[in-house]
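Recap slide: EF-hand domain-containing protein, sequence and predicted structure.
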Amino acid sequence: MSSAHEAANALPSNFDMNGLSNALSNPAQAFSMLDKNGDGRVTKDDLQLLLQQFGINGMAAKVLSKYIFKQLDANGNGTIEPSDLVNAKGILSSLFKMKQGGGAF
């Protein structure tokens, strides 16, 4: 099983994707929301905290944050920059479609 499938399966069945998707639709706003300590860096832990705010907890939050972070960290430097967040909404949409059985990676 690929990490995309693991991440899609980690999405709760009753998860309302619209709230999280809307939160990530503006990269600058999303970055500010993710950068809780204001250090100008967004880490995997920051992403996991955001997922928890939207009701994704425990192992699901860990699996999803790991996968989404890996997809967003375009230059592989271990942090997410505002420009990396441009693809966040699409990644979430793809995972949601996969969860529903309508998409494949």
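The chain has a mean pLDDT of 85.
Helices lie at 3-10, 17-23, 27-34, 44-53, 58-72, 88-99.
(End of recap.)
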